[in-house]
Write a structure and sequence with these properties.
Layout (H helix, E strand, L loop, with lengths): L1 H6 L3 E3 L5 E5 L10 H7 L4 E4 L21 H15 L4 E6 L1 H12 L4 E7 L17 H13 L1 H13 L5 H12 L3 H12 L4 H4 L6 E8 L5 H10 L3 E9 L3 H4 L1 H11 L1
Parallel strand pairs: 2-3, 2-4, 4-5, 5-6, 6-7
Antiparallel strand pairs: 1-3
Helix pairs in contact: 3-4, 5-6, 5-8, 6-7
Pfam family, one: Abhydrolase_1
GO molecular function, one term: hydrolase activity
Protein name: Alpha/beta fold hydrolase
């Protein structure tokens, strides 16, 4: 148990008995949940962690083969649940962690009571009859830029992902997160994230879920939110007034209210 908790830098806070498990998105770590932690820690037990390669996780545990698929990250979530003896967890995942959490719940549904997806996407690449938001060639250019100048890529893309240019401190915070990530691991995680296709996994979900879809998001357009709702059993969709891809940072009050209404 100790090895898993150290591997993923697991932190447990809060006074409640009911467990909330928070899973950060690409290029981030558990600190992105600060605003939500402050709100829920008085009533819930909160479990936070870093994926291997992020934050204060054990980078030495990174394995390109294991983490070459989202299932590798999903297994880490299940490992944490098993190590802590968790059951009926409220899972909150941002961005790619939405699909990672879904994969974990499909494999071991007993660990989860509800899933909350913030800015999810089961497929980022446009396909016939499907709008994901990206063309494959655009992503290849993105990967090339990452490989040649990761810091420059981070400083350019992070503020665009965050949106909300009237709050430049948020874009700066996300940039700092990106820049603190190991470039090689970030590059591999980006490819796993943006080239994944989890559309066929949606119909297998047995756990009630909520999709929080921002009204203007360059990573997950509105069409993706509607697709999640239409193709995931037991999924509720909330179109938020918030813009950008990180409403838990840019619009925490609206995000908190949506979560409270669901749980």
């Amino acid at each position: 148990m100790k090895n898993i908790l150290e591997r993923n830098n697991v932190n447990i806070i809060g006074k409640g008995e009911k467990v909330m498990l928070f899973a950060h998105g690409f290029g981030c770590d558990q600190h992105v949940w600060t605003y939500l932690v402050d709100e829920f820690s008085s009533d819930y037990k909160l479990v936070l962690f870093d994926y291997v390669g992020a934050g204060k996780s054990e980078i030495s545990a990174y394995d390109s083969k294991k983490y070459g698929k989202l299932e590798g990250y999903a297994q880490d979530i299940l490992d944490v649940c098993e190590a802590l003896g968790l059951k009926d967890v409220i899972f909150i995942g941002h961005s790619v962690s939405s699909m990672i959490g879904l994969l974990a719940a499909n494999k071991e549904p007993s660990y989860f009571e509800k899933l909350i997806f913030i800015g999810p996407s089961p497929r980022y690449v446009n396909d016939e009859g499907y709008v994901g938001g990206f063309e494959r060639e655009n992503l290849e250019q993105l990967f090339e830029m990452m490989d040649s100048n990761y810091l420059g890529w981070s400083r350019t893309l992070a503020p665009a992902i965050m949106g909300n240019p009237e709050k430049p401190e948020l874009g700066e915070a996300l940039t700092n997160n990106f820049c603190a990530t190991d470039p090689k691991i970030a590059s591999e995680f980006a490819r796993v994230t943006f080239l994944s296709d989890n559309r066929s996994d949606l119909s297998k979900l047995q756990v009630p879920s909520l999709t929080l879809q921002c009204s203007n998001d360059i990573i997950a357009p509105l069409e993706v939110g509607y697709y999640m709702k239409q193709n995931t059993p037991g999924n509720s969709l909330v179109i938020m007034e918030a813009t950008g891809h990180c409403p838990h940072m840019s619009a925490p009050e609206e995000t908190i209210q949506a979560i409270k209404s669901f749980i």
